[in-house]
Design the sequence.
């Protein structure tokens, strides 16, 4: 049932659907047990060690992160990811049982160990192991295409994991829920074994493809000189780590004061995780994606800092549970629904060959350094400042974040233009991930349209369709349109029929009288697709055209205007539809009927397909 659903919705072969389904269920299962584990560890730590111990925890995490991630990155790039994950989960089973036994010692150090181990399990699986495994079975284009679907499935996993944690906390003590984790780990091990037996990775592991942190640090200053946006991306990532840690510290302090019982706190945190998941899905699909299409990546960069400032101000005026929950939604749900998609799309303005090393610095070195620095700041601050005063530190850093995001917005278009002009640009990768080019990139797209390479022209037409004001591309496109094949024609029709301006419509109305039959056909197709139908006189004229394709297109236009009422026109159209149409004319009718999306044209489509 699921395979049939994905096959219909995604237009994939049954083999690809099966592979994608395996990966989606794996991502779902891993998120469920990770949410249960991190929620239990969080609850036990807050209840036994207290929120005042969080700064030391962040320092320890930060100091351990760099060597831990450096070592793990070397392992994950040398062996099969499914095998590594299986061994990792077997170790996690032993650790879960061991942590439950250690709790009997009733020592604060035990809860540090439980939280540290669980945090690294969560982070390594979600940021290294799972993405690496997905890349083994999905091409880079497939990974980008299904990124939102994977995020949705993981969001559902968070929802189920949070709900399951709350349910288990009703019947079991939080410490005893640790013994449920091995069962969940075993289920995922079974999924991995099934994946290994039924699917093969796309490529063999290449141990030399990874870029180390030391090498990335050496090349970082030179990259920043060439692409200014790289510095602000790294700085923004560094600031966000500190801001999120401060937010978590403040919220957890309020939660631990409100819920003194570990079972109440566990149940609350589980419900909070579920709530975050719901908010994340709603905001991602109802706000972020539509707004991205409307205003583009550059302008969206300031949205998350502004929302963060608003949540901090609300908490400042009412330092209680409800504003803390809202602030937590901002640092968790809105971080994933607004910040992460925009932050990822900003990397379109970084050359593809440098993205790996820049991200390894941002998500590795600067992330670890930010964790350590945030822990030190909080460790010092809690000795001299109250919680509301610490909130002012977060507000100040968020203002700096907003300024850095403004710089990213200003540098996005110039750096993207440099990427588009570079010889090594992969237009397939770029067009797949770009939601909308900034208007400043029009000149670069015109340069690509002037290229003699077929592939470059095709991708340039796709990029141009997102810029608006299509008349600016009439001159370069018209040079190759008369000899264009079906793929170029479809791309050109999409460009000039998507929100056409007056000049574009007038241009194609004039082309109806072109001496070139291909241009007359394209003109009709553009006008029909854009719902700017020719006059009845023009339709009657084109019904007598020497080109069968033009006559076929004119007959469809006649059905959408008053021209079909004319008995002579109706007879001409019916004779044409009942005649033996060539492949080009039949495909043209099918295309324009799909553009119009009028159910009344289904009989016409059936008539054409029969003949």
Sequence:
């Amino acid at each position: 049932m699921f395979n049939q659903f994905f096959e219909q919705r995604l237009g994939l072969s049954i083999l690809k659907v099966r592979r994608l389904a395996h990966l989606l269920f794996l991502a779902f299962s891993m998120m469920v047990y990770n949410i249960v584990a991190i929620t239990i560890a969080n609850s036990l730590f807050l209840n036994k060690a207290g929120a005042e111990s969080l700064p030391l925890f962040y320092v320890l995490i930060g100091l351990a992160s760099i060597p831990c991630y450096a070592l793990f990155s070397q392992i994950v790039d040398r062996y099969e990811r499914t095998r590594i994950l299986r061994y990792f989960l077997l170790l996690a089973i032993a650790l879960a049982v061991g942590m439950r036994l250690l709790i009997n010692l009733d020592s604060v150090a035990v809860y540090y160990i439980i939280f540290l181990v669980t945090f690294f399990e969560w982070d390594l699986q979600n940021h290294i192991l799972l993405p690496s495994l997905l890349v083994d079975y999905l091409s880079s284009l497939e990974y980008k295409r299904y990124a939102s679907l994977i995020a949705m499935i993981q969001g559902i996993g968070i929802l189920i994991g949070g709900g399951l944690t709350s349910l288990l906390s009703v019947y079991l003590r939080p410490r005893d829920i640790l013994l449920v984790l091995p069962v969940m780990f075993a289920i995922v091990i079974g999924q991995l074994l099934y994946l290994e037996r039924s699917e093969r990775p796309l490529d063999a592991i290449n141990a030399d493809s990874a870029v180390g942190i030391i090498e990335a640090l050496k090349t970082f200053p030179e990259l920043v000189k060439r692409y200014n946006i790289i510095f602000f991306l790294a700085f923004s990532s560094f600031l966000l780590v500190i801001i999120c840690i401060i937010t978590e510290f403040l919220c957890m302090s309020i939660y631990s004061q409100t819920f003194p019982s570990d079972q109440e706190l566990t149940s609350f945190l589980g419900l909070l995780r579920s709530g975050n998941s719901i908010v994340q899905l709603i905001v991602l699909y109802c706000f972020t994606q539509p707004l991205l299409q409307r205003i583009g990546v550059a302008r969206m960069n300031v949205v998350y800092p502004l929302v963060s400032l608003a949540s901090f101000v609300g908490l400042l005026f009412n330092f209680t549970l409800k504003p803390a929950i809202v602030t937590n939604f901002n640092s968790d749900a809105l971080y994933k629904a607004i910040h992460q998609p925009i932050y990822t799309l900003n990397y379109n303005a970084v050359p593809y060959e440098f993205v790996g090393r820049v991200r390894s610095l941002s998500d590795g070195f600067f992330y670890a350094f930010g964790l350590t620095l945030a822990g030190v700041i909080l460790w010092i601050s809690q000795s001299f400042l109250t919680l509301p005063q610490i909130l002012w530190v977060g507000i100040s850093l968020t203002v700096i974040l907003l300024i850095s995001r403004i710089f990213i917005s200003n540098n996005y278009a110039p750096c993207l233009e440099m990427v588009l002009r570079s010889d090594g640009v992969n237009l397939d990768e770029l067009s797949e991930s770009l939601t909308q080019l900034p208007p400043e990139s029009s000149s670069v797209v015109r340069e690509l349209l002037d290229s003699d390479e077929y592939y470059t022209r095709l991708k340039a037409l796709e990029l141009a369709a997102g810029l608006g004001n299509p008349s600016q591309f009439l001159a370069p496109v018209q040079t190759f349109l008369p000899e264009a094949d079906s793929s170029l024609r479809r791309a050109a029709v999409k460009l000039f029929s998507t929100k056409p301006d007056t000049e574009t419509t007038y241009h194609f109305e004039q082309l109806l009288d072109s001496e070139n039959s291909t241009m007359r056909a394209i003109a009709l197709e553009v006008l029909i697709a854009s719902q700017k139908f020719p006059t009845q006189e023009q339709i009657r004229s084109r019904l007598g055209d020497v080109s069968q394709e033009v006559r076929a297109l004119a007959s469809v236009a006649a059905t959408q205007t008053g021209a079909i009422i004319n008995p002579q026109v109706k007879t001409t159209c019916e004779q044409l539809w009942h005649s033996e149409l060539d492949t080009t004319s039949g495909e043209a009718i099918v295309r324009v009927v799909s553009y119009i999306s009028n159910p009344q044209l289904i009989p016409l489509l059936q008539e054409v397909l029969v003949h």
Observations:
- Residues 439 and 467 are 6 Å apart (CA to CA).
- The chain has three domains: 1-210, 211-424, 425-610.
- Residues 205-209 have pLDDT under 50 and may be disordered.
